[in-house]
């Protein structure tokens, strides 16, 4: 057999939209961050948004009323269960919503998926998103970043949000960012306040950078890791959800 010279395989640019997940505890500002990204990039990128709530479509309604995107480009997934189940354990509803959006508004550049507010262990499956942002806020306490967990440690970007509130809650933002960077082995951290233009510009630059890498076929989706094993049931006992298990935990909604 004649010897063949291997032909270099060029990176194949993906044909669908870049899917970006936004996760983090309840109330840290995930929907507001998405509104900020839509305002900052809406003129240059074709955007779609998917929200996840347990029992409502409140986040989708908030984003529609914020007027940052045409209302039909914002879709709600009602998970009916703990948020992490729909972004990690069984991503079918979110994948279908993403594919619907991408088909209805073809071509889209970016689909942002907001997880329902969950605890520090919930992260997106790389089967659903290409990259993910984990959000904390200063009001949750300056020491949270140091506590680590899969999202804090290994999400593509960690946002320390609502830095404008830091003086009122006694948090040293520079210290919190340094703690976060140490917990992340130097992965990206942005200190954000929606009213601070420089911080919004930093977030915008990060999104454009990761999108460019995705389009060049150079981006590799990372898995920050699964939830810690746990077990829990809903209030009326009608739904039981379990993993191999240890500690119980709560979801606020
Ligand atoms: N001071 C301040 N408040 C903010 C900022 N971003 C968001 N908020 C406020 O924080 C609260 C929660 O914001 P949301 O965007 O709804 O938070 P969320 O993480 O989407 O909440 P859930 O989806 O319920 O988990 C709202 O009252 C926002 O107005 C910020 O940069 N600074
Ligand atoms: Mg929200």
From TrEMBL:
Share what the entry says about its subunit structure, partners included. Answer: Homodimer. UreD, UreF and UreG form a complex that acts as a GTP-hydrolysis-dependent molecular chaperone, activating the urease apoprotein by helping to assemble the nickel containing metallocenter of UreC. The UreE protein probably delivers the nickel.
Q: Where in the cell is it found?
A: Cytoplasm
User: Which PANTHER family has this protein been placed in?
Assistant: UREASE ACCESSORY PROTEIN G
Q: What residue stretches are annotated with the CobW/HypB/UreG nucleotide-binding domain?
A: 21-189
Compositional bias annotation for Basic and acidic residues: 241-253
Which family is this sequence assigned to? Belongs to the SIMIBI class G3E GTPase family. UreG subfamily.
Gene name tied to this protein? ureG
SUPFAM superfamilies to which the protein is assigned, alphabetical: P-loop containing nucleoside triphosphate hydrolases (SSF52540)
Keyword GTP-binding present in the record's keywords: the answer is yes
Q: What is the lineage of its organism?
A: Bacteria, Bacillati, Actinomycetota, Actinomycetes, Micrococcales
Q: What is its main location?
A: cytoplasm
Q: Which UniProt keywords apply?
A: Chaperone, Cytoplasm, GTP-binding, Nickel insertion, Nucleotide-binding
Its job: Facilitates the functional incorporation of the urease nickel metallocenter. This process requires GTP hydrolysis, probably effectuated by UreG.
The keyword tRNA-binding is annotated on this UniProt entry? no
Region feature Disordered, mapped onto this chain: 225-253
Its domain of life reads Bacteria
Q: What is this protein called?
A: Urease accessory protein UreG
Record the organism: Myceligenerans crystallogenes
């Amino acid at each position: 057999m004649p010897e063949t010279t291997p032909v270099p395989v060029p990176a194949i640019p993906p044909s669908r939209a870049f899917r970006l997940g936004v996760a983090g505890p309840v109330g840290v500002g995930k929907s507001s961050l998405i509104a900020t990204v839509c305002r900052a990039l809406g003129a240059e990128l074709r955007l779609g948004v998917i929200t996840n709530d347990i029992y409502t479509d409140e986040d989708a309604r908030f984003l529609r009323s914020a007027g940052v995107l045409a209302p039909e480009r914002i879709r709600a997934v009602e998970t009916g269960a703990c948020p992490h189940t729909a972004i990690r354990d069984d991503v079918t509803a979110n994948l279908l919503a993403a594919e619907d959006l991408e088909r209805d508004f073809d071509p889209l550049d970016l689909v942002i998926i907001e997880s329902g507010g969950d605890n520090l262990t919930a992260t997106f499956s790389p089967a659903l998103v290409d990259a993910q942002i984990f959000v904390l806020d200063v009001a949750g306490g300056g020491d949270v970043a140091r506590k680590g967990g899969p999202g804090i440690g290994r999400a593509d970007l960690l946002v320390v949000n609502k830095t404008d509130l830091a003086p009122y809650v006694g948090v040293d933002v520079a210290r919190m960012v340094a703690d976060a960077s140490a917990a992340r082995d130097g992965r990206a951290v942005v200190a954000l306040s929606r009213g601070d233009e420089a911080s919004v510009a930093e977030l915008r630059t990060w999104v454009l950078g990761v999108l460019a890498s995705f389009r060049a076929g150079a981006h590799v989706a990372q898995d920050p890791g699964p939830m810690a094993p746990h077990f829990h049931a809903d209030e009326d006992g009608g739904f039981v959800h379990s993993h191999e298990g240890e500690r119980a935990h709560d979801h606020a909604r």
